[in-house]
Amino acid sequence: MRALPLLALLLLPTVAAAAGEPLQLQLVNQVPAGQKPSIKITAQQPVAKLTVQLTRLDDEQKFTLSAGPLKRGQAAALPFGDGKPGRSRWKGTLDATFADGTGWTSELTFETATTGDLRVTYARERLDLEARTVEIQLSRPAGRAEVKVFGEDGAQLGAGAATFAREAPGTWLKVAWTQTKPGTVFKIELRAVAADGIATLVKLVPWSIAIPHEEVTFETGKAIVRPSEEPKLDASYGKLLEAVERARKADPQVAIRVFIAGHTDTVGKSDDNRRLSLERAKAIATWFRDRGLPIPLSYAGFGEEAPKVKTGDNVDEARNRRVDYVVAIEEPVVARGVRAEWRPL
């Protein structure tokens, strides 16, 4: 028998035998979930039988593969393992019996990586740009996470990382970053790694701009935009287009939307206030759409739930009677703890 020197197949996609060797080996060792790694063996001379004995060193599980006969130039692809996700270390032997009766042995040592399904759950209200923290949930026991933060000009503003202790799936996990450059955060790239080594990369785009504007005045209890108020909306229309252009310069691929949020003071019944704020937000969103705003619009009514100025009940506070215009990629958080039901126009 002849022995091929130890093959160190450490996450390399292809390893071929040296010139003149009777077999050529190719390792497919990085595969997606649901698939198995494999060894492709190509005969350089007629083969009667091939046998591969493998041991997964992580748990001592053993697997036997076989193929043959093979003609010169013919290949056999041998899947192995049980589809277990994550990284695994392997050791084993390849034994070949050739058509002329001679034998050949190769020792094998390599690693594999099966990329299982790792899902990241992110809630906008758990992102705190002032505190520079974001909270996420993973669908597998947690390993670690890294974040990189980028500004509107594409420059990296900061980075951070966190190591976890195999927290159960669904646990909220906090990752903080240090911002080394000033600027408005446009997007966050987050790489999450499960405890078993499976990783995924997600992009969060929390960027938003609240458009300053002169408030539209409605008649009491009504939600009709009067002609006398349209110059105010026309001025806001131009500001909305400027904000949209700003976002597209930062990333032409992002989907931009305009969100219109209606609010009231605390005078009257809470349910009536929510309905009125919703109708007024819809009226303004409709005006922008009919004016020709070329991006999707959504609207919501919050009534007295998210006041600009906190007051008691039945307080006539003009600053709380307002409609906010926000240009954003993700749904904006109007107020922490306040649930938004955005409706597409």
- Shape, please? elongated
Helicity range of the residues? Answer: 10-25%
CATH superfamily membership of the largest domain, which one? OmpA-like domain
Q: Could you name the CATH topology of the largest domain?
A: 60s Ribosomal Protein L30, Chain: A
CATH class of the largest domain: Alpha Beta
Counting DSSP H or I runs of 4 or more residues, the number of helices is: 2
CA radius of gyration is: 31 Å
Distance between the termini: 76 Å
Overall pLDDT confidence: 87
CATH architecture of the largest domain: 2-Layer Sandwich
Kindly estimate the percentage of residues that lie in beta strands according to DSSP.
35-45%
Low-pLDDT windows of residues? 1-19
Following the backbone from N to C, one meets helices and strands in this order, namely EEEEEEEEEEEEEEEEEEHEHEEE
- Strands, total number: 22
Overall tally of domains? 3
Main β sheet profile: 6 strands, mixed
Structural class designation? mainly beta
